[in-house]
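User: I would dearly like some help making sense of a protein record. This is the protein in question:
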Amino acid sequence: MPDDTPLSPLRRVLYSHSNAVRVARWMRRDGIDTAIVATDDPLQPWRIVEATTINQDTRACA
């Protein structure tokens, strides 16, 4: 999809950070430990993944 293709209002809501937070909260209520990560994909800038245990050498930034 070209970069200049207009996005629908629904797509803008669905790919927002606030929607990713909302969906992650639903998943946590169902017992799934989640994390939200940023991607380089303009159509999916936020991805919710199942959180894993990290070791001491792993670093995260916000």
User: Anything to note?
Assistant: DSSP finds two helices and two strands in the chain. Strands lie at 34-38, 46-50.
